[in-house]
Amino acid sequence: MVQIKVNYSFGCDLSEAHLFFYSGGNIEWGSYPENDTQFLKEYGIPDEACWPYPKERYQYPLNTTSPDWKNRTVKITDWRYLPEDQIEIKKALVTNGPVPTYFIVYTDFLYHKKGIYQHKWGKILGPHYVTIVGYNDNPGYWICKNSWGTKYQDNGWFKIKYGQCSIEKKSFYITGVDGQFPIVYVDDDNIAGPWNGSKDYPYATIQDGIDNAFEGWTVFVFNGIYNENIVINKTINLDGENRHSTIIDGGGNEHVIVVSSPNVKISGFTIQNSGKDPFNSGIKTLTLESNVTIINNLIQDNDLGIFLNYGYETTWNIIKDNIIQKNRDGIYVHWSSNTEISGNIIQLNSNDGIETECSQNLKVKGNTISENEQCGIYLRTSSNKNKINGKNVISKNNIGIKIENSNKNRVTGNNFIKNKKQATFYNSFFNIWHRNYWNRPRLIPKLIFGAIKIGLIRFNKINIDWRPVLLPYRI
């Protein structure tokens, strides 16, 4: 409802733990929804950083929350119960927003995954509140959001048949969401001030917005040209208004953005003009815990477009739906594993589109990787167990893909088109080539020529795609 009011889906995250314990909840039983809603009306709920969701299942003391929480709360004006009436619930959904509701959990609900749930077997486990977010009259079910995590039901969501398990019995109508939302605004047009990060008085620089945001908040940046070199040293979402007209320009100095805190998301920007010294970057990660998400940006005219630099083996990164062009390397992945690179256009870089070193378990899928002067993809130096699959279009590079001193990679289901050399390898073993399209229809296996070195002697070697496809994959 906060995001509906702001008219922007910014990942609003408020402190469930604070609301639960301050309104009288306990681990043994739960909480009374009436106490929760009354607390929201009288005191409000602060942002998640005030009291992060407990990792351990025991009751925290009340002083776990941040001492300044009262200055960071979102409140409601009022609440009431809705009638036990499907029409009234639907009307509330359409005109007001999501509807919290009560239902009875039976044992079989724990095993429900997909489809429309209706109770068939098992004993009552207890009452539970979820949120109705939508409905479908044909065949007749509510669409609900649960709070048990993505391992339950359909990634945490479920459908339940109308009238099942008292689902319409005690639903809430909440009005008047207001207060300190976990978002600050930045606009370079506000040169005269005052500056407090509100929509009316935004900060003039992105770094000011970051410095004044709390952990877990969103920094929203309006269109403009921001001549800055930014350090993101806390977990935030950094969102630009439009990736073509919200521009962060590094002015030819070092890195444009350095990410030194985990779980950061960057989206909606043009990120350009890093320094030209080696490894200066549009975006550089500098945290061993990483988990950065880079989505829907235009990243250009840097030495390295994106530099994923060292990360614990358990960390991950997501690079998705970006245009990455006219850098030296588009993406350079250095000792950083479990990265998803998907849906990007990676083109016109003066060296490689994607280069990896000592990086494993990457998933490269659905990208267009074209017109890079050296390799479209270059896996080197123990870049093992990576998956280059999912209909990548690898075209018009000097070399489509090169694998060097790296093993057990899978290159499957890609389009290799008009590269000067489609693929090659060196000192690499147990790599799998399967069902790729190799520039033209092929009825016979495709030979991939490479070499190995034993001692001082170099030997030619061949890998084989035994079943190349006749037609290119459609994207």
Can you describe this structure?
- It is a single chain.
- Strand 6 and strand 7 form a beta hairpin.
- The chain has an 11-stranded parallel beta sheet, covered by helices on one side.
- It has 5 helices and 42 strands.
Distance between the termini: 36 Å
Sheet-strand content, in percent, reads 35-45%
Broad CATH class of one domain: Alpha Beta
Q: Spatial order of the strands in the main sheet?
A: 11-12-15-18-21-24-27-30-33-36-39
Low-confidence stretches: none
| Helix share bin | under 10%
The total of helices stands at 5
Structural class: mainly beta
Radius of gyration: 26 Å
Give the name of the CATH architecture of one domain: Alpha-Beta Complex
Write a brief caption for the model:
With 475 residues, the chain is mostly beta strands. Helix content is 8%, strand content 38%. It has a domain of 174 residues: Cathepsin B, Chain A, CATH 3.90.70.
Task: Outline the secondary-structure elements.
Elements: H1 2-6, H2 16-22, H3 33-42, E1 45-46, E2 73-75, E3 78-81, H4 86-95, E4 99-106, E5 116-117, E6 124-136, E7 141-145, E8 157-161, E9 172-175, E10 178-179, E11 183-186, H5 206-212, E12 218-221, E13 224-227, E14 230-232, E15 237-240, E16 246-249, E17 257-259, E18 265-267, E19 270-272, E20 281-285, E21 293-295, E22 298-300, E23 304-309, E24 317-320, E25 323-325, E26 329-334, E27 339-342, E28 345-347, E29 354-357, E30 363-365, E31 368-370, E32 375-380, E33 387-388, E34 393-395, E35 399-404, E36 410-412, E37 415-417, E38 421-426, E39 432-434, E40 437-438, E41 446-454, E42 457-465
Parallel strand pairs: 5-8, 11-12, 12-15, 13-16, 14-17, 15-18, 16-19, 17-20, 18-21, 19-22, 20-23, 21-24, 22-25, 23-26, 24-27, 25-28, 26-29, 27-30, 28-31, 29-32, 30-33, 31-34, 32-35, 33-36, 34-37, 35-38, 36-39, 37-40, 38-41
Antiparallel strand pairs: 1-2, 2-10, 3-9, 4-6, 6-7, 7-8, 41-42
